[in-house]
Amino acid sequence: MVNSRSYIVPGACTTYRQLVSRFYGADEPKSRPVALMARCDGDSRYPLVESVLGGMAIQPYVHDCSVSVLHHNRWSRYTIFYRIHHRLPINRAAALVSGSIAVHGDVLVMWTDDDGRVVGMRHGDAVIADQIVKRLAEHLDSLHYRKKRVPPTTLMVITTVSRSLRQWRLFKAARERRREAARERLLNAGRH
Questions:
Q1: Among 88, 32, 42, which residue's Cα sits nearest to residue 63?
Q2: What is this structure's pTM?
Q3: 90, 121, 122, 143 - which has most CB atoms within 10 Å?
């Protein structure tokens, strides 16, 4: 489905808010957080994703997909924005995460609240965003084998417990500190 966002016409009461989202650039080696402007009017927000996504000359339409995620027994909602065209470059960041070259062009992942408004991503959402992009790549890869090639409008992801590189480094450092403290206690006990 092409762009199911409700457009907000700029008016006198319209404000702009900066939201943090996860960006998987086609020309970038890995994903990164990116600040994105959203047009706000009361309770509704319209993210200006066209300012971040590349490939406007090849494919002017932006597809969006609603994603339901079950993570630690809690449901969260995300929205993916992407373009589909075979002339767009292969997304290296998404290929690194998913192991598939099915994703072409840039991909943007945003967190949405229960009312469907886009809000800024939280601290630990990078790992969840990686699993969302992996699920999107699996779905786009399966489109090659279908007669009717329709981009996804909804996806469901059940996350597995995984840690980011930063979390692994902190975990290893804490484990090493515990081991070092245990060695010190053994050495001190042996001296007495």
A1: 88
A2: 0.76
A3: 121
